[in-house]
């Protein structure tokens, strides 16, 4: 049984309701009083005739809307009645009307200020769910790529706080497309306000410092799916989901999230983004140099002596950023001068040293997540050090390290406290700066001091600031088109059928030419839509763990290029791959193939796979029989080596498809 409302409650709800409720309430009051005045005047006029019946209604109406018409009356009684009618009309049609519309206007302004207004007709817009550390960076990227589309941000944080934060970091042009909504991002009803069915892209960032943020972001992803499913939307929309913790991000990479086909789920992590911006292929578009790495001159013969130079990466602070840098280094630090046919004492290893005062606890937590790193990544040695970078022993050890002319050192200061981070990075042993070792200092904001450090060409010329919140996201890093091409290449390569009848018209003996054929079509400006559509469809059908295997493959391409003496530049159009590039790759093929094998070993190990030589690959149990040293694979599975060779020979064309040009240095 519904509870009855009292009369006063009904009135209060009407005058405090929405615009239409208030207008209807006002109209009802005015019309009701007019009918009441009409009735009373008819009664008075019946007993004391003051106006002619033919003009009675017009008299009442004109006096009701204009109090000044009483002056037209000659008699006292008509003047009094006309004055009463005019006074009531004036109160209702001026005072009440003005106050009502003033209230409506004020409530509208307040609703906009608080982010409670919903715009139902916005189309082709970007949706950002949650206000986090990287929202500003994302907005800058969206404005850079698309200057015309609206951006709706929904957050459960106070709208005024969000607005002030954006105004402090964005210019006026970047602010223009933004509309702020206040709402609970865990509520499906609130999410429906965002016009998700008509959006271009959706970014689920979650709220800053919110407990259980990663789990809530997954829940929000499912709600987005359900909302689109309810309206029977079949088209697929990209949904980019931020995972704040490296642990949960690693977990989500190992499983396929059960989502509907109407979204394309793409997880990402801010700290990994920065790691890739520093050292992977994506560093081409930033001002960050690679790890301290002198390109090794490839000998003419495998038996010739090779460079003894080696990379030593020192990571100070093993929090979220430190772990992300370590994982990225494990994926890319596979260099040409590591040779597993040599005695172990003669092998040129990459060394990664992590220094943290709380290393005992942090190491156990990390190695529990990644249990096979040391036994399956053969060309990298990891050192976990419980120490303080400022301690005399540690400073002395760093100085000793730099006496080795073959050691190429990069020191990354990853502590989260900004002042301490600067102090540590600028007060290392003097030999660090004298020997031109690279130093990276994490700062969440790029201050004037950071700008001075970047511009310094004397003592601090190899010191760089990184980790800024407003620069940790590039849309190119979230695009999967190249990864889709790489996957389609593997699909064609492993296909056992004669494909002359398929859309590619690839002969059986040319299974490894999908990438090159696509590149040729793009260069010759021929229709490549069938290639692209097929690659995208195959990618959509791929499980999330295998998608990451393709995404991470391109990270090492920059090191491939430097190994054979090339730099990379981003072009505005697809560049021509010259024959000299293929010739240089062929000359270095044994080295590059070995590098690719060790990269693959590391990537699969980080993904959770363990070696099991007695079984076939099992993606559910995460076992693989091919995670082994290069020369062992060469002996036991010689046909597998050719697959790595094909990858290496194709990488210049993969780069070209993304408009990267290789230039001989």
Structure description:
By secondary structure, this protein is α/β, with parallel strands linked by helices. It is 49% helix and 13% strand. The protein is built from 28 helices and 16 strands. The strands form four sheets. The protein has a six-stranded parallel sheet with strand order 3-2-1-4-5-6, with helices on both faces. Helix 9 (213-230) links the parallel strand 4 and strand 5. The longest helix is centred in the first third of the chain and has 38 residues, at 76-113. 35% of the residues are buried. Residues 1-6 have low confidence and may be disordered.
Averaged pLDDT = 84
Write out the strand line-up for the largest beta sheet, numbering strands in chain order: 3-2-1-4-5-6
How many helices? Answer: 28
Dominant shape: elongated
Rg over CA atoms, rounded to whole Å, is 35 Å
The percent range for strand residues is: 5-15%
Q: Find the structural class using helix and strand composition.
A: alpha/beta
């Amino acid at each position: 049984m519904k509870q009855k409302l009292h009369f006063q409650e009904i009135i209060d709800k009407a005058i405090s309701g929405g615009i239409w409720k208030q207008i209807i309430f006002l109209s009802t009051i005015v019309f009701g009083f007019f009918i009441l005045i009409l009735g009373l005047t008819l009664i008075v006029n019946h007993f004391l005739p003051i106006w002619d019946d033919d003009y009675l209604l017009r008299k009442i109406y004109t006096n009701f809307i204009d109090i000044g018409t009483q002056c037209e009356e000659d008699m006292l009684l008509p003047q009094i009645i006309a004055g009463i009618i005019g006074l009531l009309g004036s109160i209702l049609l001026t005072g009440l009307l003005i106050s009502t519309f003033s209230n409506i206007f004020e409530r509208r302004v307040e609703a906009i200020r608080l982010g409670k207004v919903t715009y139902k007709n916005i189309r082709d817009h970007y949706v950002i769910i949650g206000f986090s550390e990287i929202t500003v960076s994302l907005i800058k990227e969206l404005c850079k790529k698309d200057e015309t589309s609206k951006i709706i941000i929904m957050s459960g944080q106070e709208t005024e706080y969000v607005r002030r934060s954006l105004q402090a970091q964005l210019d006026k042009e970047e602010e223009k497309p933004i509309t702020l909504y206040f709402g609970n991002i865990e509520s499906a009803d609130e999410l429906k306000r965002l016009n998700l069915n008509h959006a271009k892209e959706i970014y689920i960032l979650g709220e800053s410092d919110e407990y259980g943020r990663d789990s809530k972001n997954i829940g929000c992803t499912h709600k987005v799916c359900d909302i689109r499913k309810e309206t029977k939307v079949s088209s697929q929309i990209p949904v980019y989901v931020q995972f704040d913790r490296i642990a949960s991000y690693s977990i989500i990479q190992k499983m396929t999230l059960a989502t509907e086909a109407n979204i394309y789920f793409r997880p990402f992590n801010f700290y990994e983004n920065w790691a890739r911006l520093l050292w992977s292929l994506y560093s081409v578009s930033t001002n960050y140099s690679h790890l301290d790495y002198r390109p090794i001159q490839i000998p003419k013969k495998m038996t010739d002596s090779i460079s003894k130079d080696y990379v030593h990466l020192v990571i100070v602070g093993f929090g979220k950023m430190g772990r992300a840098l370590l994982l990225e280094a494990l994926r890319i630090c596979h260099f040409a001068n590591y040779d597993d046919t040599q005695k172990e004492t003669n092998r040129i290893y990459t060394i990664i040293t992590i220094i943290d005062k709380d290393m005992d606890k942090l190491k156990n937590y990390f190695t529990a997540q990644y249990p096979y790193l040391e036994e399956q990544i053969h060309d990298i040695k990891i050192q976990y050090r419980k120490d303080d970078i400022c301690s005399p022993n540690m400073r002395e050890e760093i100085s000793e390290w730099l006496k080795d002319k073959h050691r190429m050192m990069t020191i990354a200061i990853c502590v989260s406290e900004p002042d301490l981070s600067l102090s540590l990075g600028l007060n290392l042993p003097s030999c660090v700066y004298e020997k031109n070792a690279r130093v990276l200092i994490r700062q969440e904001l790029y201050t004037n001091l950071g700008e001075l450090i970047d511009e310094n060409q004397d003592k601090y010329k190899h010191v760089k600031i990184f980790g800024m919140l407003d620069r940790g996201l590039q849309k190119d890093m979230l695009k999967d088109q190249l990864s889709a091409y790489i996957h389609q290449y593997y699909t064609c390569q492993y296909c056992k059928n004669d494909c002359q009848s398929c859309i590619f018209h690839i002969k059986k003996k040319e299974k490894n030419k999908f990438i090159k054929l696509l590149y040729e079509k793009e260069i010759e400006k021929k229709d490549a839509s069938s290639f692209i559509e097929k690659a995208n469809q195959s990618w959509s059908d791929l499980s999330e763990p295998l998608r990451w295997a393709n995404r991470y493959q391109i990270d090492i391409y920059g090191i491939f290029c430097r190994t054979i003496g090339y730099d990379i530049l981003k072009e505005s159009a697809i560049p021509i791959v010259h024959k000299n590039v293929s010739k240089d790759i062929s000359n270095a093929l044994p080295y590059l193939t070995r590098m690719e094998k060790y990269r693959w070993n590391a990537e699969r190990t980080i993904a959770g796979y363990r070696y099991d030589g007695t079984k076939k690959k099992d993606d559910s149990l995460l076992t693989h029989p091919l995670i082994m040293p290069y020369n062992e694979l060469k002996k036991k599975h010689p046909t597998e080596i050719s697959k790595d060779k094909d990858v290496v020979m194709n990488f210049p064309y993969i780069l070209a498809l993304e408009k990267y040009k290789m230039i001989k240095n």
